[in-house]
Amino acid sequence: LRHLPITSRSRQVTHHRSRIVRNMSSTKEFKVAKFEDLPNYGSKEVDVGKQKALLTRVDGKVYATAPKCTHYGAPLIKGVVTPDGKIVCPWHAACFKLETGDIEDAPALDALPVYPVRLDGEDIYITVDETTLESGKRRPCPRGDGQTMKVDEGKAKEHTVIVGGGSAGMGAAQGLREFGYPGKITVISKENSFPIDRTKLSKELSTDVAKLHLRDAKFFDELQVEFKHGLSVKSVDTSSKKITSDGGKKRIAIIGSSFIGMEVATCLAKEGHNIIIIGKDQIPLANIVGDKVGHFLQKAQEKKGIEFKMGVDIESGVPDAQDNSKIGGIKLKSGEVIVADFVILGVGVHPDTDFLKESGFKLEKDGSVAVDKYLRVQGKENVYAVGDIATFPYHGAAANANGQNIRIEHWDVAMNHGRVAAQNISGHQVVFDKVPYFWSAQGSPIRYCGNTAGGYDDIVVQGSMEEEKFVAFYTQGQHPVAVLTVNSDPVAAKCTQLFHSGKMPSKDELVSGRDVLKIDL
Question: 361 burial class (0-12, 13-18, 19+ CB within 10 angstroms)?
Answer without folding.
Answer: middle
